Amino acid sequence: MGQKIVQVDAFTDAPFAGNPAAVCVMEGPAEEQWMQDVAREMNLSETAFLYPDGEEFQLRWFTPAIEVALCGHATLASAHLLHHDGIVKRDQQITFNTQSGPLLAFAEGDYIALNFPSTPPDQCDAPMELVAALGIEPVYVGRTRFDYLIEVESEKMVRELEPNHSAIARCDVRGVIVTAKGSGEFDLVSRFFAPGAGVPEDPVTGSAHCALTPYWANKLGKTELQAYQASPRGGKLRLRLENDRVILLGQAVITMRGELTV
């Protein structure tokens, strides 16, 4: 019998929206090249590989091109699948051991909450090649341990942005977050581009909100935020800043089940 693999749409309460992730719940560790090959075959922004380790789970994430150290939506997808399939009871907290340390997932009403490290940006000069690649004038430029964070003047600019992906891929970071103050029900909007990691535009990026949450919490003077990632698929996140941690709240929907035959 082959390895089961499940596709889950994360940060959405409806199918075919949010950010799709593939999830492999395995019996034990797998070869790194096999995991990378599976992620390339699935061709989603991330594929999650996890297996039980005592009462906890070991978890790794791969894009079609590389392994990444932190991924929000594939962690949400993994927690949703564990709850949905009864592998972990919904009232039990899940501990994922990852390259970014222990990450906690737990039910909070109809949502799954992820307890992630805060990664606030440090202000820096804007690389000229990055500004040219985005084709916009930034209000603020910062850099986190993973990405550049660029604030622009308006939500309209974020939504209408058409960046040069090839030029962004040459920047020495995982990706680029572009954000602006939101309107209506959302405190902030954003988009995320990581062509160098094999993901031209990520539909909804949990790890990017580990930087966006402390940034906008400081600017807006509030620790609870409503966020929208304005990719073509789009996704909604509830955010909460708790000291040096970010609580990401989202929902997920299983859309496909299959079996790897190799």
Which SSEs are present, and which pair or pack?
Elements (H helix, E strand, L loop, with lengths): L2 E8 L8 E7 L6 H11 L3 E8 L2 E7 L4 E2 L4 H12 L9 E5 L2 E8 L2 E7 L4 E2 L4 H7 L5 E4 L3 E5 L3 H6 L4 H5 L5 E7 L6 E7 L4 E4 L6 H12 L3 E6 L5 E8 L2 E6 L1 E9 L2
Parallel strand pairs: 2-3, 4-6, 11-12, 13-15
Antiparallel strand pairs: 1-2, 1-18, 3-4, 4-5, 6-7, 7-8, 8-17, 9-10, 10-11, 12-13, 13-14, 15-16, 16-17
What are the key terms here?
262 residues, alpha+beta, Diaminopimelate Epimerase, Chain A, domain 1, 2 domains, 6 helices, 20% helix
Q: Would you mind describing this structure in some detail?
A:
The chain has 262 residues and is α+β, with helices and mostly antiparallel strands. It folds into 2 domains: 3-116 and 248-260, Diaminopimelate Epimerase, Chain A, domain 1; 122-243, Diaminopimelate Epimerase, Chain A, domain 1. Helix content is 20%, strand content 42%. The chain is built from 6 helices and 18 strands. It has helices spanning 32-42, 73-84, 128-134, 155-160, 165-169, 209-220; strands at residues 3-10, 19-25, 46-53, 56-62, 67-68, 94-98, 101-108, 111-117, 122-123, 140-143, 147-151, 175-181, 188-194, 199-202, 224-229, 235-242, 245-250, 252-260. The protein has an 18-stranded mixed β-sheet that branches. The longest helix is centred in the first third of the chain and has 12 residues, at 73-84. The chain is globular, with a radius of gyration of 18 Å. The chain starts with a strand and ends with a strand. The model has no long low-confidence stretch (mean pLDDT 96).
